[in-house]
Predict the structure.
Amino acid sequence: MVNVVSDVTERAIAEQQAAEYLKDVAASKARFETLVQATSQIVWTAARSGELVEDSPSWRQFTGQTYDQFRGTGWLDAVHPDDRDKTIDAWRHAVDSVSPYQVDYRLLHIERGYRWTTARGVLQLTGRGEVIEWVGMNEDISDRVAREEHLQVILRELSHRTKNLLAVVQAIARRSFGNSDLAGGPLKTFRDRLRGLAISHDLLVSGDWTGISLEQLVR
């Protein structure tokens, strides 16, 4: 009987480290998914190539797509036709440049029609910086978008009414002082200042009320 004894300590240590690493990765992923599910409607993962290969119950629940329908690039079928080009362009750029992914697009809800969502994706890397996969989420922001659109309507209406009020003031000044000694220079100066105020107001509106530069104001 011949026995051969080989020292496999290094291999055993490597296997143990690999097993511990995979365990840590699984635990980290589980924690991340739990956190994301608490703050979003959809959680998904993708291969480092950008293909969706893992099942996403939250995606299926939101869109009504089956796993076979959304895997690969089938998920684009649930994106609004007008948003598909910008969505896939943003995704391809993120994959090619190995950078975080973020884009807003309308996603078809199984019961409520198209809903605005913000999609974010981050890379999961090894300790050596190698890409493992993409982990991302979609958050329904339809209510926020609706509020912002409503606010824009109110601001436009306010702007319109403000300009109307300035026009009324101009008319009152013209009717009040048109036949007096103030009809010349003083009235013109007053009306010019009102027009300047109206133009300044237009500039603020065009800048979404975030401010304008001094150069714009002077011009």
